[in-house]
Design brief:
The chain is an alpha+beta fold and 484 residues long. It is built from three helices and 25 strands. Strands 1, 2, 11, 12, 13, 14, 17, 20, 22 and 23 form a ten-stranded mixed beta sheet that branches.
Length: 484
């Protein structure tokens, strides 16, 4: 089932919404102080695993312990869930996701007129607001409050997180409400800009949405809304606080007439810069990603499709990519007009500079071959690399000689242990004298060879130390900064 949602606010806007010609009435309602048991509150939070990673698609249920009424939603791609019309009072929260233990939290109090916030960590193993869109020349937003005559004072055992700002509506007419009676009072009625669009991203099916701009000069309070088209119910959704001049996308129904598929391409471009200093080589290259969206409109009416492209830190759009209409914290939003019964395409290319560090002491022929293949090896680098590789080959040859002498010395030591064991076994035998003399001569010869090997090894190690010092000087002498 689709979950009503108020989509992320924009951080960057390319240009204003063009006149849509759609028209319509947008009306809504929000509650003031209401009696206990009939008030609506809001609840939101983030679901994470023990490592702190968010869990998308988790099932979240909130239940009022006094009435038994419950609501269900799922977390979005950022692990976030939200309920905007929850009954206030003693409540319980249940969170579940495949592969994790169920999270149960009971006997907590949802405060009235506050944004309650509860985050959940899963272990492994009120208000009435109405938005009307009709075929008229203007869009009107009506905010109303349901006021109830009450006696007494309500106390809360626990309070949620308070909203970050305050606002008020001044009702011009006098209102009288008898005890235990209520009245629906219009408190805000203004023209606003609104456009009907289809919203899509990779984590959601196509959604019908209204793209509104709060031109009323007042704050729209959070709550729920209904959408009417040609006097018929078209859908419902939720909205967060919308400040004056702020734009928001509000989805209210599925759009079964729009179908979207996309293709991914990724590549690593050759190095664009090579810098070598103090024995370290810095290689800079561009990672490129390309997504091609194919959008089909099966309806008899044209669509304005808003494609949400994921915004990744450090990635930028290429010059050939269309400019997004606006950007939020998580998405770049591209507008794609699609005619009735036809298809349209959108291609988004992005790049990300990636720097790799490489110690020249680890330089090998494979890395040089890669630079040659990418045509990034300059004559200066070629000369320096040849000297370094030749010196490393020299050091490798010395190491090989040292290893050969070590192997021979280890073999002699093992043979000497065998001879000594044989000499112990000869005691008391008739062949003891002759064999002892033979073994003694053999041990003497082996000791002479071990001494020779030790001397040769010491000499080779000194050569290696000298060659290693020369290699260090060669490496430190290399200073290159090339851009391609």
């Amino acid at each position: 089932m689709l979950t009503p949602q108020s989509h992320e606010a924009s951080l960057q806007v390319a240009e204003p919404i063009p006149a849509s010609g759609l028209g319509g009435d947008v009306s809504g309602g929000t509650a003031g102080a209401l009696r206990a048991g009939g008030v609506l509150s809001s609840l939101q939070g983030v679901v994470k695993d023990p490592a702190g990673a968010v869990i998308p698609g988790a099932r979240v249920t909130v239940r009022n312990e006094e009435t038994g009424a419950s609501q269900v939603t799922t977390t979005d791609s950022r692990g976030h869930y939200s309920f905007s019309n929850v009954q206030a009072g003693n409540s319980a929260l249940f969170v579940s996701s495949p592969g994790f233990k169920r999270y149960d939290l009971s006997n907590f109090y949802l405060g009235v007129g506050r944004t309650n916030e509860i985050d959940a960590t899963l272990e492994v193993g009120p208000a009435t607001e109405t938005v009307e869109v009709q075929a008229s020349a203007a869009n009107v937003f009506t905010q109303s409050a349901s006021l109830v005559g009450i006696a007494g004072k309500q106390s809360a055992e626990a309070e949620g997180k308070s909203a970050g700002d305050f606002f008020e509506y001044n009702v011009k007419q006098k209102i009288s409400i008898a005890r235990n009676q209520s009245a629906l009072v219009p408190i805000l009625q203004n023209h606003i800009e609104a456009e009907k669009v289809t919203l899509w991203n990779e984590n959601s099916p196509p959604l019908r949405a209204v793209w509104i701009k709060n031109t009323s000069g007042q704050v729209f309070d959070a709550g729920s809304f209904n959408v009417l088209e040609a006097d018929a119910f078209a859908g419902e959704g939720v909205l967060e606080n919308i400040h004056p001049e702020e734009r928001r996308l509000l989805s209210y129904a599925a759009d079964a007439a729009v179908h979207v598929k996309f293709e991914d391409e990724a590549s690593d471009n050759p190095y664009t810069r090579i810098r070598i200093a103090k024995g370290v080589m810095y290689l800079v290259q561009e990672q490129r990603a390309k997504k091609k969206y194919i959008i089909r409109n099966a309806d008899a009416e044209a669509r304005q499709v808003i494609v949400e492209f994921p915004a990744q830190e450090g990635w930028e759009m290429t010059k050939g990519t269309p400019k997004p209409e606006e950007s939020s914290a998580s998405f770049h939003r591209f507008r794609v007009p699609v005619e009735a019964g036809k298809s349209a395409e959108l291609t988004v290319e992005s790049f990300h500079p990636l720097e790799t560090t490489y110690e020249l002491t680890n330089l090998d022929s494979d890395e040089v071959a890669l630079l040659v293949q990418q045509k990034r090896l300059t004559p200066v680098m070629q000369q320096s690399f040849n000297r370094i590789l030749a010196q490393k080959d020299k050091i490798g040859g010395i190491d090989q000689q040292i290893n050969q002498r070590k192997q021979e010395s280890d073999q002699i030591t093992a043979d000497q242990n065998r001879i000594r064991e044989n000499m112990k076994a000869l005691k008391g035998s008739s062949e003891e004298r002759s064999l002892l003399q033979r073994y003694t001569k053999q041990l003497d010869s082996q000791e002479d060879r071990i001494a020779t090997l030790r001397g040769e090894t010491d000499g080779l190690r000194k050569q290696r130390d000298t060659a290693q010092a020369e290699l260090g000087l060669m490496i430190m002498d290399v200073n290159v900064d090339e851009s391609f």
